[in-house]
Amino acid sequence: MERLTKRAAILGVVFIALGGVFMTLARADKISRTETWMEGKAPGSFGDFKVRRDPDNPESTVSYRMDDMTYQTLVPYGIVARIFESATQAYDAVVIASSDKDSFHDPRVCFTAQGWVIDSEETATLKTKTRGEVPVTLAQLSHKDKGRRWTIFAYKGPDGFTATTSALKIQMLAHQLKTLKNAEGVFYRFIPIYGTTTKEQLMDFVSSWLDEANKTSDGYF
Hints:
Layout: H1 2-27, H2 35-41, E1 50-51, H3 68-74, E2 78-85, E3 90-98, H4 107-113, E4 116-127, E5 133-143, E6 147-157, E7 160-162, H5 165-179, E8 185-192, H6 199-216
Antiparallel strand pairs: 1-2, 2-3, 3-8, 4-5, 5-6, 6-7, 6-8
């Protein structure tokens, strides 16, 4: 009986301590960033690639805007969607940033909702000039109307790049518990526009994009 009483007391202290930590996190100042800020920091035209303008809004710096449901579901700082085109290649690049772990969902759900089927996936490593070796998820998709495509998605948290949603969330939570401050995360998704694009071409483009992002965002993206 005495042992049970001691265990209950210890558990009580642990729960009180955890409660204090989470109350502190809840009161932590929110990091304030906007979609406009993101648009100014994310890569625009670079090298042989030019950003395709939105035909419905030619003054915009993005190629298209995600639907309202995506914004309502993720509640991010913002979403920057740009299509990069050269004479022979084109890529749809999307960046999402937030200080809320719940803004980052498994992208497989979104792919499935858009009619894509994931045929295979693996963890790959991109070699960059300024970011070192970057872990990403490389997947092959198929769509009844669009055919097959390679895709790359990745994340960046307070401890650097990672290939999975769960690893990013662990990074963000660990940072919060260690510093008692909010952490920030970034999601990246790249899909070739043309079905003839090889995975090597896609990987080369994403590596170059990440190097450009390091320059335009001072390492944020």
